[in-house]
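Throughout our pipeline, every protein is held as a single compact record rather than as scattered files. This encoding replaces a full spatial description with a residue-level series of whole-number codes. The remainder of this section carries one protein's record, kept here as part of the documentation.
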Amino acid sequence: MRCFDTARIYLKGGDGGNGCVAFRREKFVEHGGPSGGNGGRGGNVWAVVDPNLNSLSVFRGQVHFRAEGGVNGQGSNCEGADAEDLIVPVPAGTIIRRKDAEEDEPPLAELLKPGEKALLAVGGRGGRGNFSFKTSRDRAPTIAEKGEKGEELWVDLELKVVADAGIIGVPNAGKSTLLSVITAARPKIANYPFTTLVPNLGVCEMDYSTTVFADVPGLLEGAHEGLGLGHEFLRHVQRCRVLVHVVDGTSPDPVGDFNAINLELELFNPDLKDKPQLVAYNKVDIPDSGDFWEMVREQLTTELGVPADRIFPISAATGQGVIELVRAVRGVLDELGPQQLTYETNALNQTAVQRREVRIDDFTVAMEDLPPGSASTAPRVFYVEGEGIERFAQMTNWDYYEAVKRFQRVLEVSGINGALKARGVRQGDSVVIGETEFSWSDD
């Protein structure tokens, strides 16, 4: 399977249901009063680890994920039903970040274990019905709120492959051929470098045990600095428990290639040098390779200190020595014991809805510059920006006169009217708050 390791998707929490304006009308019941119910909550969007997934390829066909909205409130004080949450399945090892996030901004989630989940987009709360606005001074309010819009955002998904063994080596060393022989994977194979552009995963079942192999695309000298998409490929090595280093026996300098790749691993992450490695000297079926096998093995053991029992002559094309290599990999994994996954980032991994308290009087006022040559009396546009006031404007139901009066009172009490007057707002100027635009009046 081709392991698509990055994706960008759009998420939107469900909008809250609208509140209802209704009054109780029942025989023999005087002054029934308001009975409009509240709207239901919009659905949240969760990312959940699905153990059946091992790549982000599912997101190549679907990019947009929208949760359902809450049900509107009804009369007889009936509240709208809350919407179901939306589950977005992701493979283990997925890191989720906001699009265009700052370097020091923590990821939204890092998910490693099957069933682990994180909240990505919060659904909007339901608008209140007129029953909620009833007070001792206003016994029959004709006002209701619209449902709050759900959170929406674009996120970048990055998969660091969680595999038992990673197959590494220089380009065209025979890594994809080896994967196709030991597993049912069918990666692209050709006689030129960089045939593999994305990681490939394969599952090998042998001796009543299962081993997941990852074919990491070929690495170049300078990969730790990003050369040849080095950063894109090297990150997949981090979560592999064992490395199978495929050495091209037909290379002019097999030992030099071996040293260059190991140096790139160490420069990218010093911890990688401590990962167990098995060396697969490939293409021994070719005379130019097989004739030098003994010489290369002696050089690896004496000069570089590679244990002799971890060097295997193989031919991925004919299958020679492959079974012994897989069994050795399985033996090393058994020695390491159960895999202990560790988090590599300070991801938020939010598991509960935490609504931030925002103040309506926390705002800024900006004025749009007039086009050159405009008359000094031309209408201007003022922008009031603030999360609290923008949410309040969005939830105001302009169909009801009492809602409009309530909004005007909030503008006065919060100091927005005073701030606009201080900036020189005039009759006929436009005032924009979120998605709502008004015409200023001095009345």
Notes: The longest strand covers residues 152-159. Residues 192-196, 222-231 have pLDDT under 50 and may be disordered. The radius of gyration is 32 Å. The longest helix spans residues 254-268.
